[in-house]
Design goal:
Elements (H helix, E strand, L loop, with lengths): L9 H7 L1 H14 L6 H14 L3 E5 L2 H10 L8 E5 L5 H8 L3 E5 L10 H5 L6 E4 L11 H10 L3 E5 L7 E2 L6 E2 L6 E5 L13 E5 L2 H11 L3 E3 L2 E2 L10 H11 L2 H19 L5 E2 L14 E5 L4 H10 L27 H9 E4 L7 H18 L1
Parallel strand pairs: 2-3, 2-4, 4-5, 5-8
Antiparallel strand pairs: 1-9, 6-7, 8-9, 10-11, 12-13, 13-14
Helix pairs in contact: 2-9, 3-9, 4-5, 10-13
Length: 376
């Protein structure tokens, strides 16, 4: 039995780029610019160049990024924001935190992302914004969503915590995930495709006025020191994390290619198993495989998860319970979303990261096949 497989192998990745990362971190230590300073400014500019977006405003984490984005839109208590029910809680959490109303919509059973039809179902006179989530590594179909949102005077915030580096092909030229809506947000949690060695996040926009407001909100609502024009918060990416991210950003496309290569090996090994569905790629988006998420049929998901754990193969269920059934939201929502309900019973993610070796992939896929051979 193996014990060398990680869900995300941060140590091996660090060792691969140790020299560059150590030098970058030491430069911050030597400069003593721990908050702001050259490292943060350089990372913001380099990420702006990579994404081809006018403004990148770093912040403390991905949840703050979502909250600040919503604060910049001048929404009022009671305004509704449509958000998928099949996603991490942060996407809806910040809506409720600001006194807004999260309205939960279903998702597509193939891509796991909300489609235009899902958002349309929940439009009301109180709807002011929608939050498409680019789940597991590929984009929602943004062109139709943006056209409909603009027709209905709705703001759009892209939650891009899981798909940084993905390309969207709905326009004449490809656009990077997170740069299509009025505002995009991302997380640099260590396990993300572009991960820091602590918390971190960023907000993206091509709107100069929104960028100015976002920058102010993230810095106590001040336009210059000690002059506060609005209520803001304190959300900063520290310089050490920026230095780490600046090194890793150079390799983001390589990371994405390596993840896709692992996914392809999984596909070939598992595609003939009738009891599972392998991840599908959308025609309008590249997939950067933040997660490789299977759908396990016939109620065998939890059994397979236990079997893999017994064989020291990490696995995870993203997500086991719809957001509208979480205690934090349940009293406000009585409706059932059928695709979300099904996915919460079927999804299982197995390890995927650039450091996975072929023999490890073979051990994982052989174990999945062994399970179904034994339970059939």
């Amino acid at each position: 039995m193996r014990n060398d497989i990680q869900m995300v192998d941060l140590r091996s990745q660090y060792l691969r780029y140790k020299t560059e990362i150590d030098i970058a971190v030491q430069e911050v230590m030597d400069s003593c610019y721990f908050i702001g300073g050259p490292a943060v400014k350089n990372f913001a500019q380099n990420l702006s160049n990579y994404l081809d977006v006018a403004h990148v405003i770093p912040c403390a984490n991905g949840t703050d990024a979502l909250q600040i984005a919503l604060m910049a839109l001048d929404l009022k208590p009671g305004d509704e924001v449509i958000v998928p029910a099949f996603t991490y809680v942060a996407t809806a959490e910040v809506i409720g935190l600001l006194g807004l109303v999260p309205v939960m919509c279903d998702v597509d059973p193939i891509s796991f992302n909300s489609s235009l039809s899902d958002f349309k179902t929940h439009l009301s006179p109180k709807t002011k914004a929608i939050v498409p989530v680019h789940l597991f590594g590929q984009c929602a179909d943004m062109k139709d969503i943006m056209e409909w949102a603009n027709e209905n005077d709705l703001y759009v915030i892209e939650d891009n915590a899981q798909a940084i580096g993905a390309n969207y092909f709905g326009y004449d030229a490809p656009k990077k995930a997170g740069t299509i809506a009025h505002i995009g947000t991302s997380s640099f949690y260590p396990s993300k495709n572009l991960g820091a060695y602590g918390d971190g996040g960023a907000i993206f926009t091509n709107d100069d006025d929104l960028a100015k407001k976002i920058q102010m909100i993230a810095n106590h609502g001040q336009s210059k020191r000690y002059y506060h024009d609005m209520i803001g918060c304190n959300s900063r990416l520290d310089a050490i994390q920026a230095a780490v991210l600046n090194v890793k950003l150079k390799y983001l496309d390589e990371f994405c290619d390596l993840r896709r290569a692992v996914a392809t090996q999984y596909d070939h090994a598992l595609e003939n198993l009738n009891e599972i569905e392998i991840p599908k790629r959308s025609s309008y988006s590249t997939h950067v495989f933040h997660q490789y998420t299977l759908k396990i049929k016939h109620g065998k998901r939890d059994q397979l998860a236990s079997y893999l754990s017994e064989k020291n193969i990490p696995n995870s269920i993203f997500y086991p319970l719809p957001l509208y059934k979480q205690n934090a939201f349940a009293e406000h929502f009585k409706h059932i979303l059928p695709v979300t309900e099904q996915l919460c019973q079927e999804v299982l993610s197995i390890p995927i990261h650039p450091e996975l070796k072929e023999d490890q992939i073979a051990y994982i896929t052989d174990s999945v096949k062994e399970f179904f051979l034994n339970v059939s």
